[in-house]
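Structure first, sequence second, as always.
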């Protein structure tokens, strides 16, 4: 997701489109991306650590984006 304070033109466009479709009460929209990974690691702690490192080093632009890792 874009960090707070970083302009999000895609989120603004989605917000305007929702309003034009009659969806009232949407205060703010932030648009991000989802990346799903299937890892061979069976230890949840190791899988979490590996995915976080992948996000920090490649998958997220940590200057302007925040990220969250969830295991399923």
């Amino acid at each position: 997701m874009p960090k707070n304070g970083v302009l999000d033109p895609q989120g603004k466009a989605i917000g305007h489109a929702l309003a034009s479709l009659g969806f009232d009460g949407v205060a703010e929209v932030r648009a991000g991306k989802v990346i799903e990974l299937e890892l061979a690691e069976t230890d949840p702690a190791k899988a979490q650590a590996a995915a976080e490192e992948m996000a920090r080093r490649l998958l997220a632009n940590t200057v302007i984006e925040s990220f969250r890792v969830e295991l399923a």
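Margin note: Helices lie at 9-20, 44-59.
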